[in-house]
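Input (structure):
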């Protein structure tokens, strides 16, 4: 599921890989999200608009990363 992150007013495209009431795992291209960074997450198709915090990040391929997010 495609989603948009808003980090310090800058939008970043990502893909939701897993979802639970407590958080989600996302994958995205570009720079890794710093641990403990807070931002807004929006998934229009699921009517999700939540704040989240990065709890883990790992590089998955060249310029691609995965991050675990906890809803706050």
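Output (sequence):
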């Amino acid at each position: 599921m495609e989603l948009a992150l808003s980090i310090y007013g800058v939008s970043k495209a990502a893909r939701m890989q897993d979802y639970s009431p407590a958080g989600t795992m996302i994958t995205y291209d570009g720079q890794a999200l710093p641990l403990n960074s807070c931002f807004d997450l929006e998934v229009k198709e699921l009517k999700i608009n939540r704040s989240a915090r990065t709890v883990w990040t790992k590089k998955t391929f060249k310029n691609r990363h995965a991050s675990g997010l906890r809803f706050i």
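Notes: Strands lie at 2-7, 10-20, 23-29, 38-43, 48-61, 64-71. The mean pLDDT is 87.
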